[in-house]
Design goal:
alpha+beta; six-stranded antiparallel β-sheet; globular
């Protein structure tokens, strides 16, 4: 949405962020199908320069200061804003919602009364009263940011990078995500990779807690399966057929969780999760072998 005609596919962008390459169980209770310690801010900071672009990132200040910063940025063009609290985007049905989660939007205009934006969740030219938008943008419930009111603007293409070259450049980082990142601060009890998926399988076998079931069926399963399918597509474009096959298998296993979880067949869900768990190590080995070869 920010790069326009110069943008690669969403599959390439998602893969460059590193999001498909792992799973995590934050604090031992919150399952996400992205790598241990990963979050969207880290993903954006990785993907943008690999594509040959740069931008200005700013955050913090009071709500009044943040609005002035946003207005100044909008005078130069669309602005990437987030994370925002999705449960406080009041144009969406069912809001306000304390379990909304993190999200990003592209702001087109802002003043003292209202904010106009494109929401990739399916709301073009949505509007919000400014005070409501600021409450969502403050993102008090988003733990991975150090300061509220994050925005990115001033996107500039510094060099031309083909999607294939960017993907090739990202492979060492993908392997690091798959290996686990002990250098990243995480809540006590957090697990990554196979250990996270096995623990989630144990949770399912005992009866999936309602809140976790809702998270997985409304968000986690479909996002995780889509990310893995994107990674499979990109790995195939690099000629890494074995790695692509593993990622595709992961996507199919994960996507197949949706029906049993919705219908309360937790034993089937647990079995599928145990089938998924060892595939992360398999993918890491295959990517590592590719990096160690003439590739």
């Amino acid at each position: 949405m920010m790069l326009g005609e110069e943008s690669p596919s969403t599959a390439v962008i998602e893969t460059l962020t590193g999001s498909p390459f792992g799973a995590q169980l934050i604090g031992g209770t919150l399952p996400l199908f992205d790598p241990y310690g990963w979050h969207p801010e880290a993903g954006l900071d990785a993907a943008i320069p690999m594509l040959g672009w740069s931008c200005e990132r700013s955050d913090g200040g009071t709500p009044t200061q943040a609005l002035e910063r946003l207005r100044a940025a909008c005078a130069q063009g669309p602005v990437l804003v987030g994370p925002v609290d999705m449960g406080l985007l009041l144009y969406q049905p069912g809001t306000p919602n304390a379990d909304g989660g993190d999200h990003y939007v592209v702001v087109l205009a802002a003043d003292q009364d209202s904010v106009e934006l494109h929401d990739p969740h399916g709301h073009p030219y949505a509007t919000l009263p400014t005070h409501a938008f600021l409450a969502a943008w403050e993102a008090r419930g988003i733990s991975y940011i150090d300061a509220p009111f994050v925005l990115r603007n001033g996107f500039v293409r510094n060099r031309r990078v083909t999607p294939i070259d960017a993907l090739r450049q990202s492979l060492p980082e993908a392997e690091r995500w798959l290996a686990g990142r002990d250098d990243l601060p995480m809540p006590t009890g957090s697990l990554g990779g196979a250990a996270a998926v096995e623990a989630l399988a144990d949770m399912a076998a005992q009866g999936m807690p309602p809140g976790i079931r809702t998270l997985l069926t409304a968000f986690g399963v479909r996002v995780g399966a889509r990310r893995l399918n994107d990674a499979a597509t990109c790995l195939a474009e690099l000629g890494l057929s074995r790695a692509a096959s593993i990622a595709q298998c992961q996507a199919r296993i994960l996507g197949g969780l949706q029906y049993p979880l919705v219908h309360g067949d937790d034993q089937t869900a647990a079995a599928r999760l145990r089938q998924l768990a060892p595939t992360y190590a398999q993918l890491r080995t295959t990517v590592g072998t590719a990096l160690g070869s003439a590739f």
